[in-house]
Amino acid sequence: xxxxxxxxxxxxxxxGHMIIAxxxxxxxxxxxxxxxxxxxxxxxxxxxxxxxxxxRCGMVHAAVGKNEFFEVDxxxxxxxxxxxxxxxxxxxxxxHPDNDWFFITGADEVSNLLTWKEPDRLLxxxxxxxxxxxxxxxxxxxxxxAGLRNFDRIFPVExxxxxISATGIRRRILQGKSIRxxxxxxxxxxxxxxxxxxGDLRRNDDKVxxxxxxxxxxx
Length: 219
Ligand code: ATP
What we know:
Layout: E1 2-8, H1 15-27, E2 32-37, H2 53-64, E3 70-72, H3 75-79, H4 85-95, E4 100-106, H5 107-110, H6 119-125, E5 127-131, H7 144-147, E6 154-157, H8 166-174, H9 185-194, H10 201-218
Parallel strand pairs: 1-2, 1-4, 2-3, 4-5, 5-6
The chain binds adenosine-5'-triphosphate (ATP).
Residues 8-11, 16-17, 20, 105-106, 108-109, 131, 133, 162, 164-167 line the site of adenosine-5'-triphosphate (ATP).
């Protein structure tokens, strides 16, 4: 079976993600796409990730919904630590050794491939599919050719350009603007119900904890 792995922070998952998963699946004739939300992404400062791993994973489940070709894998969430793609991919392959494996990324991420851990070894494990994203056209991958032995394992795919990013969504929420239709309906409902991305929740949690400790000491 031809399987695509789609790793990301998904903070939150949005229509840009869903559209590239669908279009890469079609172009590369994949039979399944595994969404793999990162528990603690190694390339992002822990403080820059806003929603908890469970909430991000729950939103990816909601986005995938009843699509029989999409699945969610909790491998990185359950590890509870930062995992590099080169570490995750062999673990996924071990579970299903007979598959042909692809890794789906936006062209912006692929253009930073030289900063990833062991990119050439990763390219031995998977074909890397680089999907176009506004501001990152595929010509921006030229510099990788000189730096990678396995450059020919990177496969560009022209996708519909969707100018949506998780950062932009979080910013709109902070500004009190609507994000409806930028994310799948189920994800919108979760964000609304759990009041995600409104202010710095982590700091609020800390405050509550500190308050409880002070109260304990004074009693
Ligand atoms: P942030 O704005 O927080 O950096 P993001 O929107 O880039 O987040 P990630 O979860 O970091 O989302 O992205 C996972 C993968 O999806 C990355 O490879 C990224 O390049 C790709 N991606 C995200 N949004 C788009 C988009 N609108 N079009 C194409 N690719 C995208």
